[in-house]
Structure to design on (125 residues):
């Protein structure tokens, strides 16, 4: 039986899956949650050539504070020549991602398996 690691915070769980660091956001991601998540997110996205998956599957609510976290994580990973994938199937969050244009920068995958099956993309210089 596989044991899940304890969450770093009540809003973030980090685990390794198929060579990727999966950052699983949980519950309501608002200003307070973002402040709680940010230091952990920065630590995980600050590694050279990191392979990161931002998993929004367990979220219940996601506001502009969450969008800032995603954008920041993406920039930090790509600046260090890593790769970043997004998992999201929540209809309202998908709509916000589309409206803001973030879905063009981080195309959402419907499941973690779908994201991890993607071929590795060469990161930007």
């Amino acid at each position: 039986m596989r044991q899940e690691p304890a969450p770093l915070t009540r809003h973030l769980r980090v685990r390794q899956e198929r060579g990727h660091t999966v950052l699983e956001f949980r519950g309501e991601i608002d200003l307070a949650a973002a402040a709680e998540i940010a230091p952990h997110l920065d630590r995980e996205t600050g590694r050279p050539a990191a392979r990161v998956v931002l998993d929004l599957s367990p979220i219940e609510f996601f506001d502009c504070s969450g969008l800032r976290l995603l954008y920041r994580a993406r920039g930090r990973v790509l600046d260090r020549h890593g790769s970043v994938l997004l998992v999201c199937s929540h209809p309202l969050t998908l709509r916000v991602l589309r409206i803001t244009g973030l879905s063009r920068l981080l195309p959402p995958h419907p499941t973690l398996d779908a994201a991890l099956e993607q071929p590795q993309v060469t990161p930007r210089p």
Remarks:
- The chain has a mean pLDDT of 91.
- The chain is about 40% helix and 25% strand.
